[in-house]
């Protein structure tokens, strides 16, 4: 083929490659890319995928001619080379991927490492906590200065007397019965004693006889005194008549005394009331024989003495019993601990179970001024005014006192008491979170709590239900059982309490569909009231010795296992 025809054919074959070569930097000449050096070898396609079949054939045809028409030197085979810009992007992308991978690796490993470290520390704290016992503690409190004391007793009348017969005889008549209000000197019954009446009459005649003898002896004595002045008789004879006269005077006096005795005995034939009061017992009836020794023969119709058979003799039986009830008294035994506070005039309220809601004002009338050695109590009398007669003698009553103690004792739960060889003790938690045994002097025991006279201070924390393994000076972890801070509760390695979870409020009970809540028959049925909303217990913040961390003032605890508790649970 001629050269010019071959050239045209090559041009025709290269026509489709012009846009591709232009994109790769060729300027349309056989010299190669515009940025290639002069005389340099012609490079092939930029990428294997960019080369078209026509371009490959054109390159082969050109190479097959042996030499370039322009004479650029020996022909080089076509090789694929990456542009310098594309290699730079690949390197940058690889670096970015490596950096991202390293960042992601750090983000994933560092929290995990921190978490593992925290778990290890918590495990160490838990292991340390397992070796120290956990105890429940309570803070002691001082009793209030105003102390109330209730003591049992029985109501007794202000005056109480049993009326007996002084004269022996038969009961002629009785005038009052049980429940009758009587006055002093009022006749209750009369007794027939005819022998006593006759003795009185004989005594009166004896007095008259002795008075007549006295008169005769007096006249004789006066005559002999005249004769003695005239020296008609001797002094010896005068003294005889003088002695007779003086004996008659004494005999008259004796007869008169016997008369008065019998008159008094006859006066006892009328049984009278010794004071104003109420007759609480009558043990005689008309015809009953009574003696001056107190024996009663016959039945007891008023109920006293039980089922006494007719004709039986009951020794020491009273005829009547009279009580003064306008003022009642209650005898109580005040414990030795309160004895110094009891004084005459101290107010007391008396209550009776059968009269609920009524308080009767009373005052301490007198005390025994001595402690009973057997009961260690002070016998005290409380007087109560009973003008309306509401209080009945013999009723069981209670006397309530209010004392202002200058030095109130410490109140401690009974579960904290320790009985060992050294007497009563209590385990007190100190600022170093150690248990220290304190000897105690116990006062009154109220069951769940007791008074401690000496051995504790107001700010002490005592261990509840201490075990036998607890020793003096042993380190413990304290968990407060009351509303107070626990000493040592937040020490490292302490044990936590369970977190408090807020309970959801109770839902209100809604009436059935229809809105009226009516039951069958048309009667309206009221809806059930809504239950009160649950409120979690308040957490009381009170620092205690050995607690470096302050607990939250309110809200549920958010402690996790292995953390100690510093607030009430």
Number of helices: 6
Please, what is the average pLDDT? 73
The SS-based structural class is: alpha+beta
**How large, in whole angstroms, is the Cα Rg?**
63 Å
The string of secondary-structure elements, in order, is: HHHHEEEEEEHHEEEEEEEEEEEEEEEEEE
Q: Domains counted in the coordinates: how many?
A: 4
Largest sheet: 6 strands, antiparallel, barrel
Fold and architecture overview:
The chain has helices spanning 3-14, 18-23, 53-64, 84-130, 194-229, 235-267, and strands at residues 134-139, 141-142, 146-163, 169-174, 181-182, 187-192, 270-272, 277-282, 289-290, 296-297, 313-314, 320-335, 347-351, 360-371, 377-385, 396-404, 410-413, 418-420, 423-429, 435-439, 441-445, 449-454, 461-464, 477-480. It has a six-stranded antiparallel beta barrel with strand order 3-12-15-14-13-16. Strands 7-6-4-9-10-11 form a six-stranded antiparallel sheet, with no helix packed on it. A four-stranded antiparallel sheet has the order 2-17-22-21, with no helix packed on it. With 569 residues, the chain is of the alpha+beta class. Helix 5 packs antiparallel against helix 6 (235-267). The protein folds into four domains: 3-69, no CATH class; 132-141 and 409-498 and 535-569, conserved putative lor/sdh protein from methanococcus maripaludis s2 fold, CATH 2.40.420; 166-314, Helix Hairpins (Orthogonal Bundle); 323-404, Beta Barrel (Elongation Factor Tu (Ef-tu), domain 3), CATH 2.40.30.
Task: Throw out a few tags for this protein.
569 residues, alpha+beta, conserved putative lor/sdh protein from methanococcus maripaludis s2 fold, Helix Hairpins, 24 strands, 26% helix, rod-shaped
